[in-house]
Design goal:
Chain lengths: 448, 448
């Protein structure tokens, strides 16, 4: 295999064969293809894209670079959810125990905060003692016992993706729909799923702010999942404002526990139920979305969902008392209320600004080595379209000290705009399946 | 300077500032920017191109990475020629002494064979004893004494280009007009010239087979040269057949000596005179192209041009007797005549096939370490459009042994096509100056 010829071929708009992708990724993982050739090829892909057969072959090769979870003969179906990332997105924490308590196994493999977005692992680790570094064997054992494990990407899963992602991060080759799709799907398909639901965020706080690109990513991932034998559905959900009220690691765990009691903010409940219902329906654990939703609500009202969460926490070394007592979570030392500076209608609650402020407060990482402070963050109780009076409390800042409070207040002043004409965009704008965009938001019962 | 942001900026179609180019190349030359970032940037340039100010800044930075020749206060003007490379292209060997003997200094810095094309250095080294590895100081001293030196790219000249070229060669990023222009011009502008003439080859045997791309490269290099204070002119010349008759290192030296006696093949004489006349006119050593041509012809008929060549050979350690006795050159052990297999009109003499065959015969390199056999090659006495009889001798093969002869005969059978409708494309199709394409070929007195 002469690598420069492969690069030129892709550069000139031609497709590489599945065999070429497979040997390329194998040789790269073995360190026999230098990074400088791979990065040139990645940049050519940014411009030329990948044909479906190329994308499938690349993804297969990335999966084949490592180990995978295997659920052949498992007594219950297996499903997972992936989110492209946002601010206040604590859906995984609520959804995983909820779905597991409805008889679907959930091997929830998650990531850390990236840029301005939060990460499920960081949130979970704000529970004292909670470990996310399970091995594949530990995860598998726990799923057999509790129906759910919540872990980080293990070194065994798709190591080629790990190396490629690190290279893309420093060579300007992250923003490519097929490369994003291959990266996400190689990890998820290695989980041995019977069904996968994608939460593709769109709007100013998402990585793909352009909804046409978000739609293209959703379609690409669905095509890839289906072609690999994993039924896949995507919802496009709004990330032009934070999801729920709490933004920040421990604050989000507290809100997730409230949601598992059925008392979470309406938007968080809605997105979580919608995604979870798709999971149940996809793997045949419910005959349709309406019945799926009914069973999920029952799992919440009966307390089974919260109990499953408590057991998962205990199994992974955390203090399960947290589900009854939020004071178990580390608490911010400085808290201050933020009030509306004028009356009017909320026009914007900018999630990117809020996410950046959490990083500035110490609740996210600027470099990979940074440790994070789980206590800091925001609770924002208003959404675009809400009418507020001047001086009304509309948010709180949680910080380490008074200078953090000042920083947080300044961020809120920038993030929250009050004017005359705010309105809320639809929470779930598209539902995409292998057959296309097949249901308007109203059919899903989404508030808009 | 955050390199990934620079790469993204270029990827997204924006221009980098001159300061960014300058520090990027400086840091790269110092080994502080890794190859994997540079290759991603190079691929982005392949797709996005460079604006004129970016190209100028990149070229300046590449020049500044090393040393340069300086001719301030030199008693005569200084000019050089660059060819984009072809088969049978021995113009430099004829032109340099010819121009030097008309009172223009020629610091001819040349390259080695690349792919199917020959290189001036390899040709010169077929003269027993000839050294091309002059230092900048030696070259400068020789130019002061003889008006001409013929040398390889020294390590002092544009080291950034050397490193970038090696990286481009293995990352599919050679075929980019601005990158080609920056590479060529960084070396030529480091020669401290008063004028530069470009021989941009076009047709199946050229690197840029597409004449529109060749024209774009010519225009780009002219813009760059002029903006850097070096008057630059380009001729687009035909490389859909070999130039002259001899193809192969020692064979071409012999033909070049014949040309310096005024007895070279018509096409070789024509291209050489045209390029040389541009050099004289550019630097004001002749009032116009017609007078320039007259002086060049006089330098040939008087024997001064050949005498200059003999002195250069002697100064660089070679045996000057070669100009009177071709038997000084190493001779092929096996020679065989190739005859037309049918009568008709010559349709094609494919230079790329002939160039590849020279490499196969041992007269070029497959890897950088290969040593070459200067004796092997071809003499092809026909051009497209010529009428031939069946059985008429139309070429000769020069090889090491009979198996080489067989290989060479097979190559000629593929390279030379005889049919009904052959015709010769114009030898010089365009003359390009800073003002545009300003003279039709007829005005230059070119046979077509």
């Amino acid at each position: 295999m002469v690598i420069p010829r492969l690069i030129e071929h892709k550069r000139d708009g031609h497709a590489l064969t599945p065999e070429q992708w497979s040997s390329l990724i194998r040789e790269y993982t073995l360190g026999r293809v230098p990074d400088y050739q791979m990065s040139a090829l990645l940049m050519a892909i940014v411009f030329r894209g990948l044909e479906p057969a190329e994308l499938a072959a690349l993804t297969d090769a990335m999966i084949a670079s490592g180990d995978r979870l295997r659920f052949e003969g498992h007594p219950v179906p297996v499903a997972d959810k992936h989110s492209t990332g946002g601010v206040g997105d604590k859906v995984s924490l609520v959804l995983a125990p909820m779905v597991a308590s409805c008889g679907v196994a959930v091997p929830m493999m998650s990531g850390r905060g990236l840029g301005h977005t939060g990460g499920t692992l960081d949130k979970l680790e704000s529970i004292p003692g909670f470990r996310t570094d399970l091995s594949l064997r530990e995860a598998r054992d726990q799923i057999d016992r509790l129906g759910c494990a919540m872990l980080g990407q293990t070194p065994e899963i798709a190591p080629a993706d790990k190396r490629l992602y690190a290279l893309r991060d420093v060579t300007g080759t992250v923003e490519s729909v097929p490369l994003l799709a291959a990266s996400i799907m190689s990890k998820k398909l290695a989980e041995g799923l019977n069904g996968l639901v994608l939460d593709v965020k769109t709007g100013s706080g998402a990585f793909l702010t352009d909804s046409a690109l978000a739609l293209e990513l959703a379609r690409t991932m669905i095509g890839l999942g289906e072609s690999r034998g994993c039924p896949t559905v995507a919802l496009l959900t709004a990330m032009d404002r934070p999801l729920g009220r709490a933004c920040g690691n421990a604050l989000e765990v507290e809100e997730a526990i409230e949601a598992l009691r059925g008392r979470g903010p309406a938007d968080l409940m809605e997105v979580t139920y919608a995604l979870a219902a798709e999971m149940l329906a996809l793997v045949g654990a419910a005959p349709d979305l309406i019945e799926a939703r009914r069973r999920l609500e029952e799992a919440v009202t009966s307390g089974r969902a919260l109990e499953t969460f408590a057991r998962v926490i205990e199994a992974q070394g955390g203090n399960p008392a947290v589900v009854d007592d939020p004071a178990v979570l580390p608490q911010a030392r400085a808290v201050e209320v933020f009030r509306a500076e004028r009356g009017g209608r909320v026009e914007r609650v900018e999630p990117r600004r809020i996410g950046r402020a959490i990083v500035e407060l110490g609740g996210g990482r600027a470099t990979l080595e940074d440790s994070i402070d789980p206590t800091v963050g925001f609770v924002v109780t208003v959404k675009p379209g809400d009418v507020v009076r001047a001086g009304e409390p509309i948010a709180s800042v949680f910080a380490r000290d008074q200078s953090g409070v000042a920083l947080g207040m300044a961020a809120l002043r920038e993030a929250v705009t009050i004017g005359e004409h705010g309105r809320l965009t639809p929470l779930i704008s598209h539902r995409i399946t292998a057959r296309g965009v097949d249901a308007p938001p109203e059919a899903l019962g989404c508030p808009s």
